[in-house]
Design a protein that fits this description.
Elements: E1 5-15, H1 20-29, E2 33-44, E3 54-56, H2 61-70, E4 75-80, H3 89-98, E5 100-108, E6 113-114, E7 117-118, H4 126-134, E8 139-140, H5 144-151, H6 161-172, E9 178-187, E10 190-197, E11 202-209, H7 218-231, H8 236-256, H9 267-270
Helix pairs in contact: 1-7, 4-5, 5-6, 7-8
The structure holds 3-hydroxy-5-(hydroxymethyl)-2-methylisonicotinaldehyde (PXL).
The site of 3-hydroxy-5-(hydroxymethyl)-2-methylisonicotinaldehyde (PXL) has 14 residues, from strand 1 and helix 7.
């Protein structure tokens, strides 16, 4: 299979084991060349740290994209994650339109919320802006909170199949062809993802052992792994199963370490699984 080159647009949280600092090593382990367009630079992520710095890079985006166009560069996929503000959305749409190869994939992780709440720094109007990016995507990878916010659905902590199916359909109705929802459970001791293809009306599930704790950055790890799998020719269902397995391996490695930090998971120890 041809060597793939992709572009990922998300922030650099300098410390925090999330966004670009996990996406890059994961995609490299998958054997995918990954170019980056940082949406912002933060000293840490916003989930639990206080007093972090935030450098918005919106103003750099059009010039960077213009240079790439001049160089006639193109990408087999554009994968977006945490965006700094709603003003970046127009630039992301332009990148989708002008920097993808023919049949290039638009993969959107609408990273903006978890546990029923928007991340610090986003206003209540942000989900509507993010919905416009999701509308342009081939694949969207929301968690439950994000799917609810994107579709105006009241949030529910525990999501079974009966709640997940219409939620997946509502996200797809925004315009995206395929959706994978994370945080779906089919049994008290199982947790994972459920996927929906709006073109065929079919669903799939990818479930693993439930670990009764929450870890920061696992959504970013899930999205990067799905992207890596897709670029290596796996189906969305296979990529989602790989991502569930990999996230679980990261969590297990962290749980085994009595000195583990609080702000992320020790994904580094699980990387060989992807190589
Ligand atoms: O893990 C998602 C994420 C990415 N980037 C930043 C974040 C978060 C979650 O809190 O704060 C800056």
């Amino acid at each position: 299979m041809a060597y793939k080159r992709i572009l990922t647009v998300q922030d650099i949280s300098c410390v925090g084991q999330c966004s670009l600092t996990v996406a890059l090593p994961i995609l490299s382990a998958c054997g995918v060349e990954t170019a980056v367009l940082p949406s912002a630079v933060l000293s840490t992520h916003t989930g639990g740290f206080t007093g972090y710095t935030f450098r918005d890079l919106t103003a750099d985006m059009p010039a960077i994209a213009a240079h790439w166009k001049k160089e006639k560069l193109s990408f087999d996929a554009v994968y977006t994650g945490y965006l700094g503000n709603a003003g970046q959305i127009a630039y992301v749409k332009d990148i989708f339109d002008s920097l993808l190869t023919e049949n290039g994939k638009r993969i959107v992780d609408p990273a903006m919320a978890d546990h029923g709440k928007l991340y610090a720094g986003f206003g209540d109007d942000f989900p509507a802006a993010m919905a416009r990016v999701v509308a342009r995507a081939d694949v969207a990878l929301p968690n439950i909170t994000e799917a609810c916010l994107l579709t105006g659905t009241p949030y529910r902590e525990d999501v079974d199949e009966g709640f997940a199916r219409p939620l997946l359909q509502r996200v797809a109705a925004l315009g995206v062809k395929r959706v994978v929802l994370t945080g779906v459970s089919f049994a008290p001791d199982r947790l994972g993802a459920m996927g929906y293809d709006s073109r065929t009306g079919t669903y799939f599930t990818a479930q693993g052992r439930r670990v009764p704790a929450s870890f920061h950055g696992t959504g970013d790890i899930f999205a990067a792994t799905v992207t890596g799998g897709l670029m290596r020719g796996m189906t969305l269902e296979q990529s989602s199963a790989l991502a569930v397995e990999f996230v679980l391996a990261c969590i297990d490695a962290t749980a085994r370490d009595p000195h583990a930090g609080w702000y992320g998971v020790e994904f580094e120890k699980a990387l060989p699984l992807l190589c």
